[in-house]
Amino acid sequence: xxxxxxxxxxxxxxxxxxxxxxxxxxxxxxxxxxxxxxxxxxxxxxxxxxxxxxxxxxxxxxxxxxxxxxxxxxxxxxxxxxxxxxxxxxxxxxxxxxxxxxxxxxxxxxxxxxxxxxxxxxxxxxxxxxxxxxxxxxx
Length: 139
Prior knowledge:
By secondary structure, this protein is α+β, with helices and mostly antiparallel strands. The chain has helices spanning about 10-15, 20-25, 40-50, 60-65, 80-90, 100-105, 120-130, and strands spanning about 1-10, 30-35, 70-75, 115.
């Protein structure tokens, strides 16, 4: 079993799509290990997206991710990182495959409904960013 991080972004939370996305993930075989609703501070968003600091979209990404509540999820299943990336779909919803979360719920390349870790190593770091050991319950 492998764990990964997903974040339901401010657009999907505000649109009332969180429950539908969560149900979709469970149908895809993911188990929710930890979940919370929170609002990132600017400092937290800057730290989380530090890897993108030099990219032109960094400022607008930080602004977007602090614009409303988010729902971080610790998910578990076989090959969780790769499978979540498939279920999410392409970053640009216009290019996402039919039936993927971003095709169904994203509004734009930035307001794209969900974040998912891109590697097992990043998943471990990102899970630690949002959840304590006590919150990551054993399955």
